Amino acid sequence: MSKHPTMCDLCQEGTLEVKQGLNTVTYKNNTRGLETSFCECDVCGTEMALPEQTRDNKRRMTAFKKEIDGLLTGFEVRALRERFGLTQAEAAKVFGGGVVAFSKYENDDVSQSEAMDKLMRLADRLPEVLMQLKNDAGLNPPSNVIQLAKWQLFVKDAANEEIVDENFLQVAETQAVYNVSTFEKAQWAECQEC
Ligand SMILES: [Zn+2]
């Protein structure tokens, strides 16, 4: 929030000082003290929360609820999305939820549904599920990295070599659905000639 002092609207004299407190909340029989932000006037003593403080307080509550409900936290949703190689908009195309859904999940503005949570975890466990969902969403899977992985796989396969590079193995495994058996070898062979 802004570091500039804000005048008190009520007494028109005092300055609003930023305060931190502890707000005891209960959700599904779980009680916890959540950090809460507010302002207090140094003249009339009025307490109020600025819009960004209200937003942050609400986010802390949503994060607490997610934890109790066993849902991925906002931080975990962001980490998964990034591991999936998706922007927030792409993630919404792949998993649903609308264009701003992932911004809201990741900022703890709202909780993702249990169904969304399960689908994301499943896509994390099974790369072929993620690839299928990406295909269904019409996203172009072959990035430069994948092209490179396919190329390396083809070359090593053609040379009948063992694949020993761990980083490469990880990429190849993630993109298992695009393994060399379904890949157009002829096309790559032609490219090699040029
Ligand atoms: Zn005041």
How many discrete domains? 3
**Helicity level, as a percent range?**
40-55%
Which H/E pattern describes the elements?
Answer: EEEEHHHHHHHHH
Bound molecules: zinc ion
Number of strands: 4
Neighbour order of strands in the largest sheet: 1-2-3-4
Number of DSSP helices? 9
Largest β-sheet summary: 4 strands, antiparallel
The CATH architecture assignment of the largest domain turns out to be Roll
Range of strand content? 5-15%
CATH topology name of the largest domain: Ubiquitin-like (UB roll)
The CATH class label of the largest domain is: Alpha Beta
Question: Brief overview, please?
Answer:
The protein is α+β, with helices and mostly antiparallel strands and 194 residues long. It has helices at residues 51-69, 74-83, 88-95, 101-106, 114-125, 127-136, 144-158, 166-174, 185-193; strands spanning 6-7, 15-27, 30-41, 47-48.
Task: Describe the protein's architecture and organization.
The structure is a single chain. This protein has 194 residues and is of the alpha+beta class. It contains nine helices and four strands. It folds into three domains: 6-69, Roll (Ubiquitin-like (UB roll)); 74-136, 434 Repressor (Amino-terminal Domain); 144-193, no CATH class. It has helices spanning 51-69, 74-83, 88-95, 101-106, 114-125, 127-136, 144-158, 166-174, 185-193, and strands spanning 6-7, 15-27, 30-41, 47-48. Strands 1-2-3-4 form a four-stranded antiparallel β-sheet, with helices on one face. A hairpin with a 5-residue loop joins strand 3 (30-41) and strand 4. Helix 5 (114-125) packs across helix 6 (127-136). The structure holds zinc ion. Residues 8, 10-11, 14, 41, 43-44, 46 line the site of zinc ion.
